[in-house]
Amino acid sequence: MNTVVLVTGANSGIGLVLCERLLSQDLEGLQLCLACRSMRRAQAARSALLASHPAAQVALLQVDTSSISSVIAAAREVKLRYNRLDYLYLNAGIMPNPQFDVKAFFKGLFSSRIVSMFATGEGILTQKDGVTPDGLQDVFATNLFGHFLLIRELEPVLCHAGRTSRLIWTSSSNAHRSAFDLDDVQHRRGARPYSSSKYASDLLSLALNTRYNKQGLFSSVTCPGFVMTNLTYGILPSFPAVLWTLLMPVFWLIRMFTNTFTLTPYNGAEALLWLFKQKPESLDPQAKYHSFTSGLGNNYTLPRKVQEIIIIIISDCRRRPKSLRTWSA
Predict the structure, then answer these.
(1) H/E segment holding residue 99
(2) How far apart, in Å, do the first and last CA atoms of the chain sit?
(3) How far is it, in rounded angstroms, from Cα 62 to Cα 50?
(4) Could you tell me how far CA 37 lies from the centroid of its own chain?
(5) 3-state secondary structure of 122
(6) How do the residues of the chain divide into helix, strand and coil, expressed in percent and rounded to 5?
(7) What sections of the protein cross the membrane (predicted)?
(8) DSSP secondary-structure letter at 189?
(9) How many CB atoms lie within 10 A of CB 112?
(10) Rounded CA gap, 122 and 53, in Å?
(11) Contact between residue 46 and residue 58 where contact means Cβ atoms under 8 Å apart
């Protein structure tokens, strides 16, 4: 039987590399759908994939996860094309207008948290969020709510008796509990919307498993590690590209001491591909699956239990049950 895979944010970075790695598995009957905001970039990505895999079945889908109408229209199109969806990779995301705290950066260079600072951006990055035409915070809508709405709209092709389907999120090590507040899920009042949205996706994945596992739909979250992508380069938009290149030897050196510096989109996609091969019933819904790269350049995937997520769910269920019921409804 054919395997149908849809990847959001598939025209560049980790999303595009994931598609390339999936096609390289040489799976018979694989149907791949690139779900992208820009159809021009999507066409270029499709052409690149077909250049190396001319017999591949690669379709395109226009979707802007920051737009409610776009998500609903895309879901309607998916249901017309496919009678089932086996894998939905929730990969699209933005980190708009990052502000770099130079003072905190140089202070961190000479502290014990230098590796964590580089790997997660904690303490040195803030963002200025915008508002979508629908009145939602831009980062919240793009990274989280648009995907949540897409899942709900695609229930008829994701949930079928007698077979399993998968939701696989691209989360982040930047998903910090300190950035998230159930009383402000859109992060209107904070300066770390990216971190908040990624932490919320970790929470949401747990809630989705509670709701859908009995219907054969399983959700997992991944962390790609520290990867050099356009999102990373956007952290310092005025930073010349040549300086990023000069920093690479420093990053390789750091990787000798930490396995979180995956650096390339190919390495960062390791956990996404690893999950594709696993039986969902064998996975831990309370774990985040991390892409790791050793100092010698070997890629592997390991789960890390997110204990604080379990703690916050329990405590907030007791304190604010209505807010969680709203998200799981």
Answers:
(1) strand 98-100
(2) 32
(3) 19
(4) 16
(5) coil
(6) 50, 20, 35
(7) 231-254
(8) S
(9) 7
(10) 39
(11) yes
pTM of the predicted structure, to 2 decimals: 0.84
Q: Which two tokens stand for residue 108?
A: 């961190």
Q: Is 235:19 a contact under the CB 8 Å cutoff?
A: no
Burial of 236 (0-12, 13-18, 19+ CB in 10 A): middle
User: CA nearest 34: which of 53, 63, 10?
Assistant: 10
What is the rounded distance in angstroms from the CA atom of residue 325 to the CA atom of residue 305? 24
Token reading at 20: 């390339």
Contact 114, 256 (CB under 8 A): no
Angstrom distances, CA of residue 144 to CA of 34, 87, 140, 191, 281: 18, 17, 5, 17, 24
Tens of each residue's pLDDT in the chain, 329 residues: 689 999 999 999 999 999 999 999 978 889 999 999 999 999 999 999 999 999 999 999 999 999 999 999 999 999 999 999 999 999 999 987 666 555 656 665 656 665 555 555 555 566 678 999 999 999 999 999 999 999 999 999 999 888 999 999 999 988 888 899 999 999 999 888 999 999 999 999 999 999 999 999 999 999 998 887 666 655 555 555 666 667 667 776 777 777 888 888 999 999 999 999 999 999 999 999 999 998 888 999 999 987 555 444 444 444 444 444 444 33
The encoded tokens of residue 248 equal 């690479």
The label of the residue with tokens 């703690």 reads: 311
Encode 244-260: b = buried (16+ Cβ within 10 Å), e = exposed.
eeeeeeeeeebbeebbb
H or E, element range at 287: strand 287-293
Residue of 216, 200, 104, 105 lying closest to 162 (CA atoms)? 216
Q: Could you give the residue numbers annotated as active site? A: 194
